[in-house]
Design goal:
Layout (H helix, E strand, L loop, with lengths): L3 H8 L3 H20 L4 H17 L13 H29 L7 H15 L1 H10 L2 H12 L4 H8 L3 H19 L5
Helix pairs in contact: 1-2, 2-3, 3-4, 3-9, 7-8, 7-9, 8-9
Length: 183
C-alpha cells in the first residue's frame, strides 16, 4: 500500500491518487470538525480542507513518515480558526447593532441565504447562467436540492471528491460574478 506522501506526489498529475488520499482521511477530518462545530459547518469545513489540499499539493512536506495527517490537520486547524474569527466578529457586530445573536446558525443561514437570493434574483440568474454546466448542475444538486455529496456524485456520475470540487468551484465563480469580478 502506498504512503500518503506517495499518493500526494502522484496526485499532482493523477486525480485518482488524491481520491485515495481523500478516502483515507475524510472521516477523521470530518469527525475532528464535528467535535468542534455543528454538522453543517463540519461538512463545509471538511470539503474546504480537501479543496485547499488539492490546491496546495506542491506545498506538502512529509513531516511524519509518509503520513498526510499533520498537513491535513494543519489546513483544518487554520480553516477552523478563520471560521471562529468570522463568527466572533459577526457576533460582536450584532451586539453593537442591537441585533439578535444567532441561536440556530444553520436555520439563520438558510433564511439569510433565501432572503439574499430573493433580493439578488436577477443577478443570481445571470451569474448561474454563466457557470459551466457541470458546475451549475453540481451546485443545484447540493444547494437547491440539499443532497449529500455522495448523492450529488452519484447523480453526476463522478467521484465524491469531484462532486465536492465542482460545488466549490461553482461557489467561488458565483461569488466572483456577483461581486462583479471576472471569474
Amino acid at each position: 500500500m502506498k504512503s500518503d506522501a506517495e499518493l500526494i506526489r502522484e496526485a499532482r498529475s493523477n486525480a485518482e491518487a488524491f481520491g485515495e488520499l481523500y478516502r483515507r482521511h475524510v472521516e477523521t477530518v470530518h469527525t475532528w470538525f464535528r467535535s468542534r462545530t455543528d454538522e453543517r459547518t463540519a461538512e463545509d469545513l471538511t470539503a474546504e480542507t480537501f479543496a485547499q489540499a488539492v490546491l496546495g499539493l506542491k506545498r506538502f512536506r512529509d513531516e511524519r513518515d509518509g503520513s498526510a495527517a499533520p498537513w491535513l490537520f494543519g489546513i483544518a486547524k487554520n480553516l477552523l480558526g478563520r471560521h471562529r474569527e468570522r463568527r466572533r466578529v459577526e457576533t460582536a457586530a450584532r451586539r453593537r447593532l442591537g441585533m439578535p445573536i444567532r441561536s440556530d446558525e444553520a436555520a439563520f443561514d438558510a433564511v439569510d441565504e433565501r432572503a439574499s437570493a430573493g433580493r439578488l434574483a436577477r443577478d443570481l440568474d445571470g451569474a448561474l447562467a454563466q457557470l459551466p454546466t457541470a458546475q451549475r448542475h453540481a451546485l443545484e444538486l447540493r444547494v437547491v436540492e440539499e443532497l449529500p455529496y455522495a448523492q450529488v456524485a452519484e447523480n453526476l456520475g463522478c467521484s465524491e471528491l469531484a462532486a465536492r470540487l465542482r460545488v466549490m468551484r461553482a461557489r467561488t465563480t458565483l461569488t466572483k460574478l456577483l461581486k462583479g469580478a471576472s471569474p
